[in-house]
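Board notes (copied after class):
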Amino acid sequence: MSVFQITVSELAERFGLVSHGDGSRVIDGVGTLAGASPSQLSFLSNSKYASQLTATSAGVVVMREENVADSPVAALVAHDPYVAYAKIAALFERYPASPQGIHPTAVVAPGAQVAPTASIGPGCVIEDGAIIEDGAILGPHCIIGPECTVGAQCRLVARVTLVIRVTLGKRVLVHPGAVIGSDGFGLAFDRDHWIKLPQLGGVRIGDDCEIGANTTIDRGALDDTVLEEDVRLDNQIQIAHNVYIGAHTAMAGCSAVAGSAKIGRYCMIGGNAGVLGHLELADRVNITAKSLVTHSIREPGEYSSGAPLQESRQWRRNAARFKHLDEYVRRLSALEKDSNNE
């Protein structure tokens, strides 16, 4: 695989950045401030790493204007260096070529539709009624169930399962082990045993979404589970049946959303956070890590729950007092009332 190369001046022109220093420097990769070589690009977006700038060996560093004077190497000035770095770094990401056509070990049902420009990898199974659109890439051992559509330019890395009635929009990236369209957890208790509710809906995922490794998205009980465009899910996330997630929302690893909850647009859900069922979150709500959302949130902003980390002995003392909190509040209210009556 050939190495991609580009000059500092060409990077500035392509991404609308201001260049300082040697614009002819050839860049063939990216690295950290501390570890980058003279042929690599790095970035400075967090002030706590500013001390590493003066000693960097990088060929060029993406930074804000106020850091240029401290840079011993070429600089590319950006309003948001992290965003600029993300765009530049994508130039150096190279995947092995995926040949068009169907691998001899794949199994494709007669009633499936596979575009000639799609790539179907070893061991894939595509069932009747499935549709694979132009340029889609299915890595090894993917399973595409009935009534599922993989949109144009999607990439399913490996071992991805679309169970039934799943529609992926264009350019959706799904990482290994993800399961989409599995049964939702629908049960009714009939006196002394559970009755399983049929899950008759599907899953609709919009353009440019990303689904992390081993993440599960259940199909709806009646209506579909829906992710609008550009939703980004990290690894090992659980999305229950009939959840609706608005566009451009991102969720970190091990978070979970219970059935029929509705998440707004541009929300951020921290790692291991949970949202209870049938709740609604407004647009631009940020939930910090390990928080549990127990009521609907109507206004944008940052929300947290849970006890902060403490030294163990202090935690045990405080935990022992939790059961007395109501008593303490009542006594304090009584004292305040007596004080006001004096």
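Comment from the instructor: The chain has four helices and 39 strands. Residues 314-341 form one domain.
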